[in-house]
């Protein structure tokens, strides 16, 4: 069973705790109690794989921004929550997302955009198209409008971010495997080049030895041939000298 840490981020009062408790416990919290930090665990099955989720419900107030950075560093996936009854809560998410991307040092972070309190139609100030527009600006980040009261799209939002985490981990694993195979191939090619170089050096050495032996044999043969010629020349000179002396005597 794999462990996944999901962090719920958003402004104060948007219903982060409500959707988290609804997902984990199936209970709707009506009263608002500002959260500093709450952690929940839940085991679910996603695409046939068992998952153990640790869900961190973070504070939405500004004085806990330092703690928020720690949560972001440890998180693998993020629910960015705003309220459809509060326009400013959506604007705050823009800065929160930039913070997440900066801390994670990546543009590919598992993330879901959540517009909560969709059941409060009379108080709505943000339409579905507003959420869709932000989703498109963020590179088609999955977007859900949820209702913590009626559990509308609550499970779907959490499962979506877990599925993104799983896909990213699978991609990282595949990339590492590919790099390992590439390194193995490069090493094999290098070893082959070294072996070919050694074989070439040995061949040149053998050719050089054969040439040297041939040259030595050739010199010996030449010397052997020259010896009779020199002797013959000396005999010819002696004979000529003898003949000359004989002629003079006569």
Automatic annotation (TrEMBL):
SMART domains: RAB, RAS, RHO. PANTHER family: RAS, DI-RAS, AND RHEB FAMILY MEMBERS OF SMALL GTPASE SUPERFAMILY. It comes from Lodderomyces beijingensis. The keyword Nucleotide-binding applies. Keywords: GTP-binding, Nucleotide-binding. Residues 186-198 have a biased composition (Low complexity). This is Ras-related protein RSR1. Residues 199-230 have a biased composition (Polar residues). SUPFAM superfamilies: P-loop containing nucleoside triphosphate hydrolases. Residues 177-250 are annotated as: Disordered.
């Amino acid at each position: 069973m794999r462990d996944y840490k999901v962090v719920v981020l958003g402004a104060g009062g948007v219903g982060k705790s409500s959707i988290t408790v609804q997902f984990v416990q199936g209970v709707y919290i009506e009263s608002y109690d500002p959260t500093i930090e709450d952690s929940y665990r839940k085991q679910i099955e996603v695409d046939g794989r068992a998952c153990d989720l640790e869900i961190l419900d973070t504070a939405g107030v500004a004085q806990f921004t330092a703690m928020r950075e720690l949560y972001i560093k440890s998180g693998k996936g993020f629910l960015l929550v705003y309220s459809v009854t509060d326009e400013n809560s959506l604007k705050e998410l823009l800065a929160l997302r930039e913070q997440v991307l900066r801390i994670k040092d990546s543009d590919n972070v598992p993330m879901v955009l959540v517009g909560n309190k969709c059941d409060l139609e009379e108080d709505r100030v943000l339409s579905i198209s507003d959420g869709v527009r932000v989703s498109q600006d963020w590179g088609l980040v999955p977007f859900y409008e949820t209702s913590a009261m009626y559990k509308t799209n609550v499970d779907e939002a959490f499962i979506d971010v877990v599925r993104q985490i799983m896909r990213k981990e699978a991609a990282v694993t595949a990339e590492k495997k590919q790099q390992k195979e590439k390194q193995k191939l490069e090493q094999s090619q290098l070893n082959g080049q070294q072996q070919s170089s050694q074989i070439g050096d040995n061949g040149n050495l053998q050719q050089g030895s054969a040439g040297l032996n041939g040259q030595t044999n050739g010199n010996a043969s030449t010397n052997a041939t020259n010896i009779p010629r020199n002797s013959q020349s000396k005999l010819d000179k002696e004979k000529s000298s003898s003949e000359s002396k004989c002629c003079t005597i006569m």
